[in-house]
Design brief:
Chain lengths: ~140, ~140, ~140, ~140
C-alpha cells in the first residue's frame, strides 16, 4: 500500500465524491478508499442502458473515470485539486449486472499521475479496462469557485 | 458526404437512439444525422456535474461515444449492430454550458470503423476530442435479444 | 497460464519475429514466449535516442507494440495472422538503459484481443504502459502475400 | 495559422530534430515546419518492415509522435523542453510506400498541449491517426543534461 501525503485523504475523497451530482444521478457510490486504490460501485438500473439493454459504455466510462481520479487524488496533498487530462477505455464484455470499478495508481508524478481501472460485473466478468492521465493543480480548491 | 449502405439509415439511428434510456437520463438528444456524421446535443443541467460544478468528464464521454457510434452506424448496412471496442478522450476545457458532440467517420473498414468526435460548448469553447474504434456485427439485431 | 490453441505457438512466434526487419534494425530480440505473455528485450544503443539522449518514445512504443501483438498471437490458432488496430501508451519515465517490454493478454475475444504491455528498464524503473487492441484475421497468412 | 511564442521556433525545431539519432536510424526527415503544424517524411525502406513486409506500426508511431511533438513545440517559448505524456494511434491501412505524418496542435494549454497527427502514404492512402498529450517543462533545456 502506498503512503498518502494527506492523512485525511479518505475524508477528503468521500466529501468530494458526495458533491458529484452526476454520481447521484446514476446511483454510483464510493465502495473502497485506500491509498492509491479506490472502488466505485454501480448497482444495475434499467435507465442506465443503451439500445440493447446493456449498461451504456459511457456510464461504464464514468465510474472507471472516477475510480482512477480518486485513486490518484488519494496520494495527493490536501490543498490541491486535479483534472482528468485524458483516458482510454476498452470495453471487453456487455454489462447486464451491477458493476464495480477499481482504480489504481500506476505512477504518481509531480504533475501528472497515470492510473488504471478495471471494471468487473458482480458475477466476475471483466467488463472494461481504462488507462488514464490526471494533472494535479496545486493550491487550487476542489470546490466550486 | 459519404454514401450510406442503407437509405433508411437516419430512421434506424433515430429509433436506436430513442431506445437508449441512458440518453434520456442525462437529457441528450440527437441533433443531426447525415451519412458519416452525427451530432448529439446535451443541455446543461446541474445534476450532470462533478464536485466543482463542471459537467462530469464521463458525461462528456457519453455523448462523444454516442456521436461516434451513430456516425459509424450511419454507413453500415441495415441488418447489423455495432459495439464500441474502445475510445480515448482528451478533456480540453471545463464545461459549464450546454454541449454538442459531433462524431465523424475517419475510416469505415469491413469489420472495424474508426471515428472521431469533437465536443463544443455553445459559446464555441472546444471541450473534448475523442478517437474511437467500433466493430460491426453483421446479421445481428440492434434490439434486445 | 492460458492454454494455447496451437501447440506450436512459440515456434510460430519466433519465426514471425525473425521476419520483422524493423526489430533487427533497432536490435530488439524476443526474450520470453509463453501462452498469453511475451517479453521483448531492447539493449540500449545511442542511435535509438531522441534529442536529449533518452530512448525515443516511438522506439519504446515499437517494443511494447510487439510484446502485446505476440502475446495475443500466442493464443491464436495456427492458420491466422493479426493486425494491430490501435494502441495507447503512457510514457512514465525517461529511458537511458536497456529495456524489457512485457506484453500480456487481457481478453482474447473471437475477433478482437485486448493486451497490455509494461516496459521496464533493467534497473527496475517503470518506463511505459500500453493498452492495445488487435484483430485476428482467420485463414490469412502471416507471411508476405 | 497560429502565432508562435518564439520567432525562432523553426530553427529550434530543426536543431532538435537533427539531434534525434533515432530519426536518422529510420531515415525520417523534417519536411514542413509552420506554427502549430509539422510534417515528418519517411521514405520507404525494407528494413523498416514487419513480418508481412509492411512498414512496422511502431515506426509509423515514431513519425506521428514526432510530428505531434514538434507541432506542439512550435508554439512554445524558447526556454523550455517538452515530454510526450501519452499517445494513442489507430492503424487504418497497411503501409508499403513512403509516408508523411502531419502533426497539428488541437489545444495549446499552459502546461499540457493536445496534438493530433494524420499519416498518409504517398498514394494518398490514410495510414494512421494519432491523438497525443504533451507536457511543457518551462526553463528546462531541450539538450542532453
Amino acid at each position: 500500500m502506498k503512503t498518502p501525503a494527506d492523512p485525511q485523504f479518505a475524508d477528503r475523497i468521500r466529501d468530494s465524491f458526495a458533491r458529484q451530482k452526476a454520481m447521484a444521478l446514476i446511483g454510483a457510490r464510493l465502495a473502497t478508499v485506500v491509498p492509491g486504490m479506490v472502488e466505485v460501485a454501480l448497482p444495475f438500473r434499467d435507465d442506465l442502458t443503451q439500445q440493447k439493454g446493456f449498461v451504456h459504455g459511457g456510464i461504464i466510462g464514468m465510474i472507471a473515470d472516477n475510480a482512477c481520479g480518486y485513486a490518484a487524488y488519494s496520494l495527493m496533498p490536501a490543498d490541491c485539486t486535479l483534472v482528468t487530462a485524458e483516458y482510454k477505455i476498452n470495453l471487453l464484455a456487455s454489462a447486464t449486472l451491477s458493476l464495480v470499478a477499481r482504480g489504481e495508481v500506476v505512477k504518481a508524478g509531480r504533475t501528472l499521475t497515470v492510473a488504471r481501472a478495471e471494471v468487473y460485473a458482480v458475477d466476475g466478468t471483466h467488463i472494461a479496462t481504462m488507462q488514464q492521465t490526471l494533472m494535479m493543480l496545486p493550491g487550487r480548491s476542489d470546490h466550486r469557485e
